[in-house]
Amino acid sequence: MNYIRRVLATGVVLLPLNGACATPDNDHLARATLLVGTVARVVATNEGATAEPGEPRHGESQPSRSVWWSWDAVGSGPVLVDLAGSFSAAVVGVHQGKYITGLAPVPVTTYTNVDGTKKVSFAALAGENYKFAVDGANGAQGGIVLELRLLTPDSAPIILEEPVDRTLTEGQATLFVVRVLSQSPPHYRWRFNGPEDIGSDSSQLSILGARLEDAGTYQVTIRNAAGTVTSRAARLTVTPSPPVITWQPADQSVVKGQSAVFTVEARSSVPLRYRWQYGSAGPFGFGGTDLPGEDDSSLTLDSVEPSAAGGYRVIVSNTAGDTAQAVTSRVANLTVNLRPPNNNFADRTSLGSLTNIVKTGSNRFADKESNEPRHASMNVQASEWWTWRAPASGWVEVDTVGSFSGAVPAVYLGGRLDVLEALHGERASNVDGTWRFGFECKADSVYQIAVDGATPADQGSVRLRVSLLGPIAKPIITRQPRPVVALEGASAEFRVEAFSAKSMTFQWRFNGADIPGANGPVLLLTRLSAIHEGTYEVQVGNTAGTTRSDQVDLTVLPLPPLITRQPSSQDVVEGETARFSVGVQSATVPSYQWFLGSTPIQSGTGDTLTLESVRTNQAGPYQVQVSNAGGTALSRTALLSVRSRPFNDYFTNAIVLTGTNVLVTGYTNHYAGVEEGEPAVPGLQGRKSMWWVWEAWDDGVGFLDWGGSYDDAGIAVFEGVVLAELVPVELNPAGARRAWFRAESGKEYRLVVNSTNATESGVITFRLVFYPDGLAPEIVQHPAGVEVVEGQPVSLSVAATSQTALSYQWEFRALASTTWIQPAWATNAAVEFLQARAEQTGDYRALVSNQSGSVASEVARVVVHQRPHNDDFASRQFVTGRDLRIQASSRYATHEAAEGPHGGANGNASVWWTWNNPGPGIVALDLAGSFNGSVAAVYVGNRIDILTPVSVETYGNPDRTARLKFTVSTNRT
Question: Three-state DSSP class for 189?
């Protein structure tokens, strides 16, 4: 299709003509259409466009049908390039550079419009040129609407990404997001359903745990110092959620005849219904049947029988719109237990008349009878009953050793529960937490025995032993002494309990020898030390004999270690060494174990933990546990913070630069370091280097400008691929923190940024520009204009880059002329006037040339001001008369070497007169009307170095000028 061009106020519109597709005018980079200003909008097409050889990718798209625009940034700031209204597959690429094969991509952020088209944003620098290519993904083509907008401080925000509609199930969370471009800080105000202000000053609005009443529209107004913009209204739809069971029915274990209650708790925003089922779980699921009428949140089963055992579950449902939603609870199991057969006194088990009998049972699920007595002063909880007839008289021991812990026996006389008489005897505890009871029996008497628990939780298996020990003889030990482990300096107690029909004696022994004075049932040892360690026993005697107790040990442990110095937190850079240490006081040699969090460190078994070449995954809390035989001590937590080195701190991680005009910004070398074997660079003594690598695609000159980096930053350039074998490349200064170097086609160049001293670091910004051979020179430093007074020196200079030899020719143009003159002598990079003259006032520029062309510098204006004719003492103006009025100026006057201060002011811009008085009298000298702050002085003498001040009286005028008077005699000058 052919097109004609029509120019509109907003840009260029391409109108189709009948015929075949014509190639767009801006099909190639060299014919890129120029965009101007801060806002530009064009309508175009890429139909019939092609891709050029060597053309780079545009975004993620291979070039196929690209058209080009060029734009010179008229200011610095964020830029938006928007394709809204273009064909859906349109993509845009942003580049810098002059030639198609040397373009450097500009980093952009891509957004999607509501219509599916794209827009990108990037940061522009004033004066830089940018190229925009619009292409079609996979060869697509169509109409293009391209809008360019540079945000200025007086620009309202621009919405890059609108909030989008959301659909949630009740209780879910979501996020409405708006993204904007703004030169000044934006403020956000979100609204719900139109005017309702929900007051979130953020680009994001969180909906946490959505409710049905949260459904509606959400819109945000964005405001900055320049204006306001409002987003589209995004709709939130909230559907009710299925029921959520918050409390599952629990398993039940009851005794036959009791009640069982199953309860479920559920949450829903709409009313709930319940349906209970009974059954059992099988290989194919729960085989359950509905329980008629059970439609509440609780299921109660009264007076359960064993047949009620099984599984129970409930189906909880609600209605969300037209759709029923249901959830099924877990299966809760009901267990129906039977009470022990000897649970009641009337059902007690007979033990016969044996002298030594053992019986087993269980008091699990037992209970107490209404008139049952308390057993051994314990509240009756779950008792079992036995009956025993004594075959002879003597001492009887009823023992529950081997039963559940806390099992307590009790013995009674009597045939009915309500008339039982408790027997008195000796009660003692066993090592396993059970009890035993000793009493004196009579032959053929019947005794009732109950076993119960000391607490409600004491239930389980019962092992009951009834032993007739025979007539009373030597003492019976009812409670043996127990081993003791105690700390050094503490106390230890050994205790024995015994029964005897006669009075008893006690003798404690240590390591087989009697302990003098230790003659009671309790042995107390104080201020323990290692000498107390050993074996202890007691002999209990009466007139019938002696009974020896068990032998038990006393172990004396040293005091636990005491931490006297805690480990300190560390803050290191990745690759450095971190050390933690602890100070400890211990009577014996302690052991150490260091931990990272809760994980023990295999090598951390000393009082110092050394971590060499620390990595970021080693950051965290460190503690040490110190132990000896007496116990452990845990230190306080010390935190290790590990600062990550920049990625390209390492030579092998050098960041690759591509293109002919590359801007590197946003890096810092705060935590960078120096590698072993890194070459020393004169003047860059810092230890915080970062690396980049760039390959020259042709012979030419690389120009570096790092003026945007921190004050002490410097750049060095090397050739080579191995750190220890790098060869420095000569850098040629081209102004403050600017330099250029020769580059050869196909060679890689390593750029390192470092500091001029060992401690400085900061933000790194530099630009690398490549100029291939065969191009005209480029001026990198233009001459600057000056204003001087005649006789003062003037110096103008220019600096340029070129791949070939440079020549210079300065040109001069007088202020009133339009003709440039080329002085034959002005053919160097600098021109100097040691003593400038007024006729040298005018405009100057430099023509810099190489074999490929010439370029002119910016114009520098030199202004040489003339001094007053009476600026020097030798050129003073002679005046005569009695009443004189002189009008003159001291502007651009100077100060002579032998000249001193005048009237208390240093002479910086003085003019001179000489006057010969016509006769004696008083002379008045008044500077009223002169410049503010003007002063005057009067002298006699004919040379400036021998002048003698005349005594004057000084007065001040209202306009801050001076007036004075002095006395003169005849014929004085």
Answer: strand
